[in-house]
Structure formats: C-alpha cells, structure tokens
C-alpha cells in the first residue's frame, strides 16, 4: 500500500509563512500527480495546488502568487510553501497522490491516496 504523511502545519500570524511537506511511502512504482487540498470548517474541500511528474503546476486563483508547490521526485515528497498567509487560509490541509504501485507479486496497480491532514491556523 501507499501512504502519505503531511507535516509542517501549525499556528502563524497573518502575513507569516509556513512550509508543508507530504512524504509518500510504500511500494511506489511511480507518482504522476501530487496535490494539496484544504478544508475549512463548514466548507467543502478545495484544491490549493497540484504538480505533475513533469513539474507542471496548477493553482487555485486565490493562492496564486502566495503559495508555491514543489516536489522532490527522488524522495517522493511534495512541498507547499505558503507566504503572506491570511486568516481565511485557516483550514486542514490534505495531500493527495496519484500514481502506480507494485504489489507483492509484482503486479502494477493505480493508486489515489490521501494523507491524514495537517491543521494550519492563521491568527489575525
């Protein structure tokens, strides 16, 4: 199986920065896409940013210019650098990974997994 573990969340003042990490582990053959999503209280989960294996990125409009997604393909890790944080950025941030895993018998299967989430709180 494939697991994602997020880290780096916490409490920060408005205008501050945080860097989130998402480490993928397991019998990974390849990772095609990694993305960050967030869910604020009472709201639906929304895309923050995503990155492909080729390095192409996609951002939600409200995050453009403030957030930067990157990945270390060797370590199967994605990062989200968040600058100029606002109180409305307060949410649980989840990592998503899509790719191909290898089973114990060597067969290949697609995977689409989520991390457990990390809480980001921005105080005003």
Low-confidence stretches: none
Span of the ends, CA to CA: 40 Å
Summarize the main sheet.
7 strands, mixed
Order of helices and strands: EEEEEEEEEEE
Q: Mean pLDDT, rounded to whole units?
A: 96
Question: How many helical stretches?
Answer: 0
User: Considering DSSP H and I runs of 4 or more, what fraction of the residues is helical?
Assistant: under 10%
Description of the molecule:
With 124 residues, the protein is mainly beta. 0% of the residues lie in helices and 63% in strands. It has strands at 2-7, 10-13, 18-26, 28-39, 46-52, 57-59, 67-72, 77-82, 91-102, 108-114, 118-123. Strands 2, 4, 5, 6, 9, 10 and 11 form a seven-stranded mixed β-sheet that branches. Strands 1-3-8-7 form a four-stranded antiparallel β-sheet, with no helix packed on it. Strand 5 (46-52) and strand 6 (57-59) form a beta hairpin. The mean pLDDT is 96.
Question: How would you briefly describe this protein structure?
Answer:
The protein has strands spanning 2-7, 10-13, 18-26, 28-39, 46-52, 57-59, 67-72, 77-82, 91-102, 108-114, 118-123. It is mostly beta strands and 124 residues long.
SSE layout and pairings?
Blueprint lengths: L1 E6 L2 E4 L4 E9 L1 E12 L6 E7 L4 E3 L7 E6 L4 E6 L8 E12 L5 E7 L3 E6 L1
Parallel strand pairs: 2-11
Antiparallel strand pairs: 1-3, 3-8, 4-5, 4-9, 5-6, 7-8, 9-10, 9-11
Q: What keyword list fits this structure?
A:
124 residues, mainly beta, 7-stranded mixed sheet, 4-stranded antiparallel sheet, 0% helix, elongated
